[in-house]
Amino acid sequence: MPHILITGAGGFLGQDLAVALLKADPSLDLTLTDIHEPSKPPSSSTVTSLALNLTDASAVAKLLEPSYDAVYLLHGLMSGGAEANLELGWTVNFDSHRIILDTLRKSHPGTKVIFPSSLAVYGPQQQTTLVSETTVPQPQSSYGAQKLMIETYLNDFSRRGLLDGRVVRLPTIIVRPGAPSAAASSFCSAIIREPVAGVPTTLPVPKSLALWVCSPTTVIENLIRIKDVPSSKFGIWRTVNLPGITVTVQEMLDALRDIRGEDALKLIKDEHDAKIEGIVGSWPARSETSRADGLGMKADSGLIENIKTFVARYGQ
Predict the structure, then answer these.
(1) Which residues are within 8 A (CB) of 290 and not within 5 positions of it... i.e. 6 or more apart?
(2) Which residues form the NAD-dependent epimerase/dehydratase domain (predicted)?
(3) CA–CA separation, 130 vs 112, rounded Å?
(4) 140 shares a domain with 202
(5) What was the pLDDT predicted at 167?
(6) 162 and 304 housed in the same domain
(7) CA 293/CA 114 separation, integer angstroms
(8) Pair 21, 143 in one domain
């Protein structure tokens, strides 16, 4: 039976990916790992859950003793956290990934590796700039620099035939369930999630700020689809910008009002944060996705539908 590894499996993306993979293939042998032991989704399949420090080379070596049909590298320190703690950011977002990739290429060459990167690899683009995979990256955060380094590392190993890498640059995911994260873009979900739950929150950026976003459901589906794309279809470069939609913060607030009423907006307080605006404002709000379309990635639905889906699943 197929054997798949998900690192960072304790987060909502890892948890939802695990459920979706098991739904697609109930015979799957799945290994989940994170710094704290991830929850196991209910399944009749073999699911192993491990608490591991992936910055420890000996722990990684033990984890990678068996071979895997695919490895999803979802672990990492989020953008705001990586900017606040330089040493920890490079240790988690670069060193641990390099340890894993080096171990895989030596012990299990040819392993399929899916790495979620970020629009944070881009730099101070104009909000109207249409970026593509050939746009020169100029990251304006340590998080973006770390993602770009691993992109390059995995692309080089794929060029050499040492690994079968698939790099996907994710849009900002909204609406993320659960507690606020250390991501600079955490407010994007918070201004929907918290008011829906009747909880106050803050807005640190101008309402005119535009963002490239995508629903969790579409991101999960494309993470699975990218795994199944034949290796030959990628050509000389393994990086793909995933589909999304362009929305302004004001449009997000308007959608929230349409769904939950004016009282929901009263729970959001403007509280400008120049650091957050500087990071998120350096991300492009439009992405050219013909490459993703050609590889069979799914387009995202509209903002209203995304928020309604979140409210139906998590709302009160």
Answers:
(1) none
(2) 4-194
(3) 30
(4) no
(5) 98
(6) no
(7) 18
(8) yes
From CA 222, how far away is CA 14, in angstroms rounded? Answer: 13
Q: Say what the pLDDT of residue 126 is.
A: 61
Q: What is the pairing mode between strands 29-34 and 46-51?
A: parallel
With respect to residue 179, please indicate whether it lies within any of the assigned structural domains: no
Residues 136 and 259 in one domain: no
For residue 118, the cross-strand partners are 170
| Alpha-helix runs per DSSP H in 48-141 | 57-63, 79-84, 86-90, 96-107
My answer on whether 27 and 128 are in the same domain is yes
pLDDT, residue 247, reads: 96
- 38 in any annotated domain: yes
In the prediction, which pLDDT does 77 show? 94
| Per-residue model confidence (pLDDT) at position 42 | 83
CA distance 107 to 94: 20
Instruction: Please state the domain count of the chain.
Output: 2
- 71: domain CATH number? 3.40.50.720
Identify whether the C-beta of residue 113 lies closer than 8 Å to the C-beta of residue 163.
yes
For residue 259, give the CATH number of its domain. 3.90.25.10
Q: How far apart, in whole angstroms, are the C-alpha atoms of residue 286 and residue 301?
A: 16
Active site residues: 143
Which tens digit of pLDDT belongs to each residue from 2-34?
999 999 999 999 999 999 999 999 889 999 999
Question: Could you tell me if residue 180 is inside a domain?
Answer: no
pLDDT given for residue 159 in this prediction: 97
Residues in the chain with pLDDT < 70? 44-45, 125-127, 316
CA distances from 67 to 51, 98, 183 (A): 19, 18, 32
Alpha-helical regions (H) of 69-211: 79-84, 86-90, 96-107, 142-159, 186-196
Structural domain span for residue 251 = 186-212+245-285+300-314
